[in-house]
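Structure in, sequence out. Go:
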């Protein structure tokens, strides 16, 4: 009986092992198409970017002719010594530093307001979410029309809706986006666009977090006579800290890759009159690609990757100390 019991136990263990192996095989088979696509379109380009970045003077046309390149960091030096690189870096950093805090704070306040109302809540959610599903280039063109000063040629002066509103208060008109406008005016328009375009997704995430908060916390605070402001900072914000950390990190990553907003407002020239004064690091990368300067483009991409990696690591470190799970 004992031998039969041991044999049955071994057979059962073997059967479980076989079933587990078959399930693992099925899992890998199901994952195979996605893994193949990731290898082709994500991992291989990433490895190739590193390879091109460290080949001095790498040129897409020259490589076809059989030319070889020495290893080094000349591409990085070329990018850093580019006459407008500091401007590209400054624009990229400022767009993040300005827009991420403003859009996050506004999204939090709107999410709290939406969560506190019941009538028409779904309609308001839909209205606030519309910018997120609208084409960014089309939105940029609308913003250009809103802030424009001269709309038709140089003889017929037209005012965008913003200057028309300012005229009511005896202000303006200001040149926000047309030829001759200042860098500060351009930065204001782009930041306004990014904030407006970034808010919907953040509202969605934060509102979802608010709706999952245990209502007992608020009931206890109400019984204790805690003010709404204190409740907001002592209960709402700490309980939403995981969602806040998520939207802040993703916002910084998206902000450092900003490009489409500038193109939508100013076109491929990345500034009024194609002067490039609103160019970003991603804009520099796209500028190098038609010139077949893939080495410089790859080096700029790795510089941007390094900046994003450092900022994400700092955010992760801060989140460990301030996020309450």
């Amino acid at each position: 009986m004992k031998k039969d019991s041991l044999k049955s136990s071994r057979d059962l263990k073997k059967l479980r092992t076989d079933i587990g192996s078959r399930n693992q095989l099925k899992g890998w088979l199901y994952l195979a198409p996605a893994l193949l696509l990731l290898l082709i379109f994500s991992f291989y380009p990433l490895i190739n970017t590193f390879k091109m970045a460290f080949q001095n003077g790498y040129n897409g046309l020259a490589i076809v002719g059989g030319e070889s390149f020495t290893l080094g960091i000349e591409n990085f030096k070329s990018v850093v010594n580019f006459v407008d690189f500091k401007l590209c870096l400054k624009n990229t950093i400022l767009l993040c530093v300005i827009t991420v805090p403003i859009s996050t704070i506004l999204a939090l306040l709107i999410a709290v307001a939406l969560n506190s109302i019941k009538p028409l809540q779904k309609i308001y959610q839909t209205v606030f979410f519309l910018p997120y599903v609208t084409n960014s280039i089309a939105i940029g063109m609308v913003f250009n029309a809103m802030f424009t000063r001269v709309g038709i040629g140089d003889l017929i002066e037209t005012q965008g809706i913003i200057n028309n509103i300012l005229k009511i208060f005896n202000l303006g008109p200001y040149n926000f986006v047309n030829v001759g406008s200042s860098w500060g005016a351009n930065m204001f328009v782009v930041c306004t666009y990014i904030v407006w375009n970034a808010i919907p997704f953040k509202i969605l995430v934060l509102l979802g977090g608010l709706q999952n908060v245990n209502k007992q916390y608020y009931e206890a605070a109400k019984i204790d006579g805690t003010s709404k402001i204190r409740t907001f900072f002592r209960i709402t914000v700490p309980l939403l800290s995981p969602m806040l950390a998520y939207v802040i990190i993703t916002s910084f990553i998206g902000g450092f890759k900003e490009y489409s907003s500038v193109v939508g407002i100013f076109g491929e020239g990345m500034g009024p009159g194609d002067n490039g004064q609103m160019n970003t690091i991603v804009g520099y990368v796209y500028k190098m690609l038609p010139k077949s300067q893939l080495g410089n483009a790859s080096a700029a991409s790795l510089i941007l990757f390094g900046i994003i990696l450092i900022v994400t690591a700092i955010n992760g470190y801060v989140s460990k100390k301030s996020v309450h799970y």
